[in-house]
Please model this.
Amino acid sequence: MSEYKKGGGMIRGIPHDTIEQSLPILAVFVAILVAVGGIVEIVPSYYLDDAEPAVEGVRPYTPLELEGYAIYRREGCFLCHSQMIRPFRDEKERYGHFSLAAESGFDHNYQWGSKRTGPDLARLGGKYTDAWHIQHMRAPRSVVPESVMPNYLWLEENKLDTSKTKRRMEVLAMMNVPYSPDDIANWEVDLKAQAAVDDGEGEDALRTRYERKVWAMGEKQDEDVTTWTDSFEPTPINVRAFDGDASDVTELDALIAYLQMLGKSVHFEEGVDYYHDKFGQPYRK
Ligand code: HEC
Model:
């Protein structure tokens, strides 16, 4: 063997060739490498208090939105759509302010994703009318001719299955999402109120329950809540027949309710980039 073929690299006395040709040795080195990478990424989140500050106005999903979020996952929308705007200029110009950690703090599991066959949806809320969404979900190519998105015809026909809604909220509450026993007990009236199938009786109660200023989890309840505005105005909950038909609650109602609130809970001032200092206080750059 020539000197060249031997490679020549040495790691603490072991030649490179030996490492690459022996599975056990290679596995040990790979394990060390992955462990170091993992520790560097994971450990800081345990001792940094402000790694994920609670932000005023960011709230968990209402029961109807929660079901919409479940349909989003069931239909695999995440296979083509991300929900995380990165802090780069091109992203901000296209989608809006970059995503904050708190904005997906109540998502289990996260929909950040990285695959963008379609656009990022993190700030989709309010971008289009409900009528646009209805048409786009039925037949994407009827509004965007070059679209490769599938038709989701069944969503407007299927009645929303609410047999798991209460259980979903209970499980999320166990995972520290701050749903109160009152929020959970009223899941059904709130769900119907938001989809406007109850003649408007439940709307005020729904708003009182969900338009709270602070929805911090666990020990952050009384502290560490970041304020982004001088005077807080909650983003109003959308209450209407999202699929254009108030007679019943369909899967499309739930999905559009979810899509229309994405990225709306924090009030960003146009053109301002918000950052945190190391004490968790927001400042502007
Ligand atoms: C096969 C990939 C694919 C899947 C799966 C998919 N989409 Fe899309 N989506 C696209 C593409 C491509 C576009 C851009 C063209 C268009 O608007 O139709 C798009 C656009 C959109 C838009 C408009 C976004 C904007 O800012 O203009 C919305 C809303 C949307 N999709 C929602 C959904 C939902 C909800 C689901 C799941 C039920 C879904 N998509 C599943 C590919 C996909």
Remarks:
- The beta strands are 10-11, 14-15, 54-55, 225-226, 274-276, 282-284.
- Residues 10-42 form one domain.
